[in-house]
Amino acid sequence: MMHRIKPLAATLLIALLPATALADGTMVFGGDTYASGKTTTLDQPSPRSAFVSGLSATLDGPVTKDAHLAGGHVTVDAAVAGDLYTAGAWVIIDNTVGGDVSAAGYSVSLNSSAAVGGNARIAASEIDVNAPVSGSLLAAASEITINAEISGDVMLTAEDITFGPDARINGTLNYVSPSAIEIPSNVIAPDKVQHKRLTRATLATLARMTVAGEVLQDMDENGNFSDAAKSAANNQLRDDDRGNFGSLLVGFLVTLACLLLITALLLTSMPERLEKTRKRLVSRPFSSLGYGFVALSALIGAVPVSAMTIIGLSLVPFFILIVVIAWIMAYITATYALAWKAVLAIKPMSPTLINRLLATAAGFVLLSLTHYLWFFGWIINLLVVLVGLGAIATTCGKRMIERSMRGDEANAESEPSGQEHPEAKTPDDATETPPKTQ
């Protein structure tokens, strides 16, 4: 799917640049139609391809070739003879598309008044397919609802998959989900369905996926499993369980080692700044939490804002990288500060590098265990990140203010020296100078 997303992003970036030059308006260049603005509605026919961008982007005019739309709220109300490429928070397709559909967003809906002549490739949090698709359907989301006929093959990745009364799949169905779902026989024949789990949910599933599991399902003449089959299956399950646990343990240890390495680098390279941040966090945790919420909102908000400017699409990967780095740094800083505070409260210790790293390692382990707490685990880790990010933001803000004040003071001190050269006196001024007395 990535080889389809990259052309989509590149096309939106390059082709919408002429429209952004207009700020708000419509332009026809080389037969292609470009439109941009805060609330953009392209209602004129496009002799070739159409490119629409805006906070709200709507296509109301028919397009002879391909259509490209990007914005917060994207609506396609006109027919597109070629392919449709669209990206936005909410994407609604209400008319026919002669070619393929490539869509990405938070919510993507193919309404019943629409139709797709080719393949459909959709990535979102919520996907509703109520329009017939003549080709194949490739979709990835948290929730997927299908209530139309799909002529080709279907591949789905979702936590929740729902089929409506009008759902039909003429090809094969491959879906990946945490658990198998019940698919009505009128949607697709059972022998054309293949399911893969995201995780190894049960040992029985593991058994069926292995050679030992296949042996386990073979019965003897009396309808009982043979002892050899049971033994082989149990051994296979134990091996899989040990392998799964071993891989998880190795992954955790590698992650812990990387986090401790970053912590050690911070403690040795910038001890004063880290100490100021730690003191700020432990002395004012609630204000740090509030500042962290504001800082994280600003960082994440920079991603869609830069994308909506179209020109800033090329900077989106850098903003995402900044968000990831800030998240990791905040998590490490908060874990170190809270763990060291807890250790000192239990037993005073000398602030050596080894002692602080051991305390931080214990903090990482305890926070990793909170992931197993239902519902509250991710909230605890999010609060830790917010507190750390708020402490970092306030410390950096104070440092910037101090630098600005030092600069103002330096400028103020330099002003008198600049006035030590008064204007040259005129001859009249010279005559007015009283003579010196003997």
TrEMBL record:
Residue intervals passing through the bilayer: 245-268, 289-312, 318-340, 352-369, 375-396
Biased composition (Basic and acidic residues): 418-428
Pfam family name, one: DUF8173
Keyword set includes Nucleotide-binding: no
Sorted UniProt keywords: Membrane, Signal, Transmembrane, Transmembrane helix
Domain DUF8173: 231-395
Endpoints of the signal sequence: 1-23
Region Disordered, residue ranges: 404-438
Domain of life: Bacteria
Name used for this protein in its record: DUF8173 domain-containing protein
Protein species of origin: Martelella mediterranea
